[in-house]
Amino acid sequence: DAGVIQSPRHEVTEMGQEVTLRCKPISGHDYLFWYRQTMMRGLELLIYFNNNVPIDDSGMPEDRFSAKMPNASFSTLKIQPSEPRDSAVYFCASSPDRGYTGELFFGEGSRLTVL
Amino acid sequence: KNQVEQSPQSLIILEGKNCTLQCNYTVSPFSNLRWYKQDTGRGPVSLTIMTFSENTKSNGRYTATLDADTKQSSLHITASQLSDSASYICVVSDDRDDKIIFGKGTRLHILP
Questions:
Q1: Least CB-CB distance to A91: which of B43, B46, B98?
Q2: Closest approach of chain A CAs to the CA of B77, in angstroms?
Q3: Which of A52, A90, A95 is nearest to A72 (CA)?
């Protein structure tokens, strides 16, 4: 299996621009998670889906962030408009269960820099 | 507030030496504790998963221990190699709030 695939790996944009991050989970995994990682706060859960349905989005910072999962093999995280404080590494992870008792499989991350 | 605290924040050791990383948590009740390794520029990869009833779990040169009474876990690395240079993240599953709580990690540097 190719693992969790994220794109782009690096994104540099200017404040105010729209950013879209993409994720393809491991086939057969029913759960998909979006995390944000910074030096100050470590890994933070933004949102997770079960069978394409958003279950918990309490970690989404504000209305500028939105996430979708139109099918079992694709999810997007969108930031509009972007701000410098959004600069971070965004990880997508998938799991055959809630990730609660089993293992989370992470992608390689998308490093976002907002100027 | 449930927390996972790791120490030290960073550690530098010579290749071939052993080291131990610490994780203290206040999460209660919890179902399992995991250690992840994160290489620079990569995503975290699972090293070990322990349930609350397990005391130790090994994965090659990595050995994790768990003391549920004192709410402490450690990750011991034997005969370190340059490829062990990475961040090591402790993760605890919170049964009460149904959440996974991440520590901020220990950054390990192995010098030749």
A1: B43
A2: 21
A3: A52
- With CB atoms and an 8 Å threshold, state whether A101 touches B32: yes
CA distance B59 to chain A (A): 15
Residues of A in contact with B93 (CB under 8 A): 100-101
Report yes or no: B42 at the A interface, CB cutoff 8 Å: yes
> What is the residue whose two structure tokens read 């690096």?
A10
Beta carbons of B53 and A60 less than 8 angstroms apart: no
- For residue B61, pLDDT over 80 is answered with yes
What pLDDT digit, counting tens, does each position of A15-49 carry?
Answer: 999 999 999 999 999 999 999 999 888 999 999 99
DSSP characters for A70-112? EETTEEEEEESS--GGG-EEEEEEEESS-SSSS--EE---EEE
pLDDT digits (tens, 9 = 90+) for A72-81: 999 999 999 9
Q: Is pLDDT at B2 greater than 70 in this prediction?
A: no
pLDDT surpasses 90 at B48: yes
Q: How far is B46 from chain A (nearest CA, A)?
A: 7
